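Q: How would the structure tokens look for this protein?
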Amino acid sequence: MDDAPEYIIEMLHITKEFPGIRANDDITLQLRRGEIHALLGENGAGKSTLMSVLFGMYQPEEGIIKKDGQVVDIRDPNDATALHIGMVHQHFKLVEVFTVLDNIILGAEDTKLGFLSKKEARRKVQEISERYGLRVDLDAKVEDITVGMQQRVEILKMLYRDNEILIFDEPTAVLTPQEIEELILIIRNLAKEGKSILFISHKLNEIMEVSDRVTVLRKGRCVGTIETAKTTKEELSRMMVGRPVQLVVDKGPAHPGEAVLTVEGLTVPSRLHKNDAVKDVSFQVRAGEIVCIAGIDGNGQTECVYAITGLEKASRGKVTLCGRDITDAPIRTRSKDGMSHIPEDRHKHGLILDYTLEENLVLQRYYEPQFQDHGFIRFDAVREYADSLIQQYDIRSGQGPVTRVRSMSGGNQQKAIVAREIDRDLPLIVAVQPTRGLDVGAIEYIHKQLVAQRDAGKAVLLVSLELDEVMNLSDRILVMYEGEIVGEFRGGEVTVEELGLYMAGARRAQKEGKRA
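A: Here is the predicted structure in token form.
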């Protein structure tokens, strides 16, 4: 008879504090052997902090951790690895110029007489990748592979170290729908093989699909643990946010006006290969409508938005904003002429991570009369403005407006960008993945804000990989495949299945008939 305790990991009464905030407040979490246990909560609820305590990245002020019924002391990630605990972080910890194989064995190298022995390591990695369906090119450099493949490298790193407790921190935040399906299958296979999995997420569909039990956190405290089969998405969202959440966008019909953005024959060269990333694309976005560019990641949407917003040069074509030709205009000119931009990569193009929250909230406006006097910034006006946006958009941070943005959770960083861009009250909003990494409460709020902007006569260009978001928000949908627009539909006149076929390139709209 198996005398092993029921719980492989127990985190009992864990409390973790940072300056100005109690991130974990007396939390108890118990992980059974071979189960997939989801950790659900709003942005900044303390999910990642709790897992970082388990992985040894933080030391708790109070509480104990047990493994197999015995109290353990996890002072750093090396202690966690020795206890067979592994973690895939939200922002991957890979060396981009190293190969996949070098990244997997880094820190756990086999050596013979002081020399690195890669032959045995390669054999072991190949065996693991075939066993779990994690195929990846071991000789490719990490900088040259997709985000989905990078995640596989992180999972292989854990399995190479014979980890039996696997922590996934927001594993689907940067994946395409197809990659998400593959990942869920991989996680299920890992559980079947006897691995015990902690799955951090705020995507209710995924949690309902993949987990056995769910522990819900709210504002650093544990709300409860329930069996997934005995609950609903509505119940989970209520536990998570503390109120009923509207999961479907409530919006009336659009009343489009004049064209705000006109794109004609836009062609953008690719950085990765000789072909063009965007090929002769033309469309309009009118005042009072939400137009969505849908497509599988890597089909030219990013380059198209870069050319419209000025982050990249187009080789041919014309971009007109409010009747003015901005094809070659600098980014500040586009911004002053009426364009707000919620960028795809919040760290690279959305924020200056070492600036404070209040500084980031006035990045494009500090020179306006409201915020400066004879060339000197009026910090009292900046503080007052930041406080109002923090309250309105529920941006959570340890030290309010003076918090360094780097220390905030990904979801709250995203809220800061959305607040800044929407509040500028400009004729055009270019919103790329605006709800990436956000919880249901924040998604509900931002969707309402985008619809309100549309109803106020603004033009909204939305780029999203989330099919639910595309179907819920769009008045018109443009499908991009291999750099071209292959379909155009009115919102509500196309099914998810049909949209998926166009996104995968299986269909193209005829010039007449299907074109909206």
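The chain has three domains: 7-241, 246-338+426-516, 352-425.

The chain is about 30% helix and 25% strand.

Upvote if useful.
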